[in-house]
Amino acid sequence: MSDTKIQVIRPEGMPQPAIPYSPAVRAGDWLFFSGQSASDLVSGLAPEAVVPAAFPHYSNAIGKQAAALYGRVGSIAEAAGLDPKQVVRVNQWYAADMKSESYKKGDLTVNNKRYVQEKGKFFQTVSPPSTGIGVRGHLVEGAKVEVDFTARWSKDGSLPVKVSAPDVAKPAAGHAEGVRSDHWLFLSGDLASDWKGNWGSAADGGELTALAPEARASGLFWGDEAVGRQTDYILGRLQKVAEAAGTSLDNAVKAYVYLSDPADYCAFEDVWAKWFPDSLKAPARALVPSVEIGAKGCLVEIGMELLMPEAAHLKKPVAGGWAPKSKEPAAMRGDDLIFFSGLMATDPATGLAREAAPTPGLPYFGNAGYQQMAYILQKAKRIADAAGVELKRIVKGTLYFTDLNLYAGAMDALKEVFADADHFPAMTAVEVNRELWVPGCGILADFVLYDPQEG
Fold first, then answer.
1. Which of 34, 76, 154, 215 is the most exposed place for a label (fewest CB within 10 A)?
2. pLDDT tens-digit readout, 93-122
3. Could you tell me the pTM of the whole model?
């Protein structure tokens, strides 16, 4: 029988914030970090991460914060007995300038150069597969970046192996296109960019774009949907990296998709359905709108986790509990993990479920964050029941809010689920730019459950 134990990792002396908080959670061969920012976990930003008001230009805020947060990450890794080389995915959530009245979708407002420099000091050999997304807000006032990590202990003690496709443009930030660990493959979030763009050229009439030529839409005719061309281009590149590792997108168990504009959903979904025509064979998917994508003209970013062919039989959809309206299963098992597709407090008949909605004449009589998260967790429990696993075996959650004022109520609902559990999941929470897929829905939850199988 596989090890079923779930263990909280907390470095000695680390403060406990006034919320349920596990710095990291170990589940068998996996280690999931909560989102880490440069906070002291008690009052806000840590003193060593603050730019002195008397010398505002002598240091860089995101650089100082990155140094502080990677110091914390190092302490957590040490407490877990983890070598940083065992990290297989890094997610960065950068503070974009979305609160400015002049902000427009497609703007580039993040400068992550000094963050990347600090990250390079931590990952000195291979920079793991990476996603970098601009968001509206963080839980810590003044935070420029929040970062979470997934790591794995290989069965034979080997380190993840870098994977690269020879004819795919390499990420400008220097992270790996993918890494393989045992029968798992982790692919970086990819954009439809060649990392060159048309700066200094006469292409596209001189309009600046970071897009690869093959991913550009002319805009000359009706129906020339830019996000569709970009999605197809990205999936083609991810397929090349998967093939370089010896597998294919047919073996994908989880996809992370970010769209800058919710209005692009239908065009994106059309292309997605061509690549994954059978929803029950498609990967589980977190589909997140209203974020900033980090290259001029790019509208979508996609990252994935896959199994190798020898483990393809360990990919199994979870049928029952909930049937998504979109092109994905409710959840997908990949070996000892169950990846949920993104959940909101929705009902097929009403949009926002009545149980999660305020009473029109009594808008202040409820707690919207609690109501929506409680409904999401009820939906998640039905899916978990269909998979034959307890909901309290969630080991990682990523929560996307339209307004972080919903956070406290949402955490109250989560605390109830884990009241008698021996762990609280690793959690990341960020605020997107005010709009999810269904009007009134303020929370999108992405969960991972640990459920090791015999053999």
1. 154
2. 999 999 999 999 999 999 999 999 999 999
3. 0.96
